[in-house]
């Protein structure tokens, strides 16, 4: 089943996300990819795949991806956020990660976790149903 995967990286971590995405291009190409603006533009060129680009992160892109989660339209988030530099939109970053916890969305903040998510048998198991919290 085709999933919707969001790909996001802060500037210092974009090279890691490009490297990771290239390594998993075959898997990613089977799914719908969405991204914040700058990340999406870079990935589209690097992967030569269609990536739906939302606004740039500081201009609301994180919030748009958060809205997808709230509408139950996102299956997975790969978000390489920068642990060493503050961002003007840190509250948006926190809100996006919070949405992942609220809605039980698999989220990877580094390459090792992202590797494990996309290579997990559950990732391609159409019978696996992510539990959706009932508040
Ligand atoms: O800031 C971001 C996520 O918080 C990423 O935004 P860009 O992809 O536009 O750089």
Question: What is the fourth-level CATH superfamily?
Answer: Methylglyoxal synthase-like domain
CATH class: Alpha Beta
Q: How many β strands by DSSP?
A: 5
Q: Give the ordered list of helices and strands.
A: EHHEHEHEHEH
CATH topology category name: Rossmann fold
What CATH architecture do you see? 3-Layer(aba) Sandwich
Give the N-to-C terminal Cα separation.
Answer: 27 Å
Range of helix content: 40-55%
Biggest sheet, spatial arrangement of strands: 3-2-1-4-5
Spell out the blueprint of helices and strands.
Layout: E1 4-9, H1 14-23, H2 25-28, E2 32-35, H3 37-47, E3 51-53, H4 61-70, E4 76-80, H5 90-102, E5 107-108, H6 111-119
Parallel strand pairs: 1-2, 1-4, 2-3, 4-5
Helix pairs in contact: 1-3, 4-5
Bound molecules: 1,3-dihydroxyacetonephosphate.
Residues 8, 10, 36-39, 56-58, 61-62, 93 line the site of 1,3-dihydroxyacetonephosphate (13P).
Produce a short descriptive summary.
With about 140 residues, the chain is of the alpha/beta class. The chain has helices spanning about 15-25, 25-30, 35-45, 60-70, 90-100, 110-120; strands at about 5-10, 30-35, 50-55, 75-80, 105-110.
Explained architecture:
- With 135 residues, the protein is α/β, with parallel strands linked by helices.
- The protein has a single domain, classed as Methylglyoxal synthase-like domain (Rossmann fold, 3-Layer(aba) Sandwich).
- The chain is 42% helix and 15% strand.
- The protein contains six helices and five strands.
- The protein has helices at 14-23, 25-28, 37-47, 61-70, 90-102, 111-119; strands spanning 4-9, 32-35, 51-53, 76-80, 107-108.
- A five-stranded parallel beta sheet has the order 3-2-1-4-5, with helices on both faces.
- Residues 8, 10, 36-39, 56-58, 61-62, 93 line the site of 1,3-dihydroxyacetonephosphate.
């Amino acid at each position: 089943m085709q999933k919707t995967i969001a790909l996001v990286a802060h500037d210092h971590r974009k090279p890691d996300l490009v490297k990771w995405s290239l390594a998993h291009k075959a898997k990613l190409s089977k799914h719908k990819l969405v991204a914040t603006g700058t990340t999406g533009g870079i990935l589209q060129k690097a992967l030569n795949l269609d990536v739906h680009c939302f606004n740039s992160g500081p201009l609301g892109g994180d919030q748009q991806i958060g809205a997808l989660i709230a509408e139950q339209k996102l299956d997975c988030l790969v978000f390489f956020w920068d642990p060493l530099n503050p961002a003007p939109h840190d509250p948006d970053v926190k809100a996006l990660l919070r949405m992942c916890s609220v809605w039980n969305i698999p989220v990877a903040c580094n390459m090792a976790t992202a590797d494990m998510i996309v290579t997990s048998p559950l990732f391609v198991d159409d019978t696996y149903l992510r539990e959706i919290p009932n508040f």
